[in-house]
Amino acid sequence: MIDVSVARGDTAVTARIDVPPQGITALIGRSGAGKSTLLQAAAGLLRPSAGRVAIDGATLFDAASGTDLAPGARRLGVVFQDGRLFPHRDVRANLLYGAKRAPASAAGPALDEVVALLGLAPLLARRPHQLSGGERQRVALGRALLGKPRALLMDEPLASLDPPRRQELLGYLAALPARLNLPILYVTHQMDEVMRLADRVVLLADGRVAAEGPALELLSDLTLGPLVGRFEAGSVLAGSVAEQLGDWQLTTVTVAGQRVTVPQVAAAPGAAVRLRIRARDVALQREVLASSASNQLAGTVLRVIEREAPYAAVELALGPGGAPGERLWALVTQRSVQALAVAPGQPMVASFKAVAVEGRAAAVHTETESSPS
What we know:
Strand order of the largest sheet: 7-8-9-3-10-11
Order of helices and strands: EEEHEEEEHHHEHEHEEHHEEEEEEEEHEE
Number of domains: 2
Shape: globular
Distance between the termini: 5 Å
């Protein structure tokens, strides 16, 4: 639990977030919303003026009682954008620095396990200047894990990497929750990172929590678009791989009991995936039509929201029941809403091209019954 009032420069934050004991909580919002400020307050790098920070039953900060543990005593693994490795030490020595700071009685991964988990064996004798950006971040992550932390705090760890290195490191990050039983708070601006990694999302705006909830539900709430900034409004749907169409570099995915075709997703049949579709790429019609838009999903209108003319946003529940993760938004004109008689409860078909879909293999995290930190 992080419940603090803290300021840094012109940024003032008064917010409470509950971080589940396992899985990844993504902290998102516009630049200047207070994401990094809140993370640094939890890490002990900024002192709040009021509030409390408690993780895994341990109080790390409490303004009322005067408790304020030093950063090194909080047992939090912190990973920044630049890695911050010791340039005069090789990779093994950088990793062992983290291990030496771990309490002897603390549970956590050993050196060999971290090296295997992050693919560091070929790098152990190298110095930081001999590593790529992605390799440096993997070493920084390994060093943080070897401190056997109560939680992992990551402040835009992929921001300085080029696209290939980002995708490489995303794969390692996605595997962490299933292998290590610890909470992760992850600050980012990037939608593909949230799609791939997050179980839960907290949206900050002007230093306060504007919304929070399960990732699929919050990312598919078009009404939050103005607060999110550069994330383009749309929907994130949960599905599973039905078939790989290798000759065409396409993948067929089952969503809400229906099939859609998307650009190839590197995942085996049956694997969980997440699909992102921008609302502006979705068209509405009354029935299934022969069209170059190969994907057509049947649903029921949940609500119609008039936006600044000429637009309207329409939310559909896909398939029976419209369970969480099965909601689709379409951004259409108000004229189309009138012409199609779009209204809550009305059956409707949403269509979109395969190339309009961004697909990602979903990180599958094991749930626990523990209470939030």
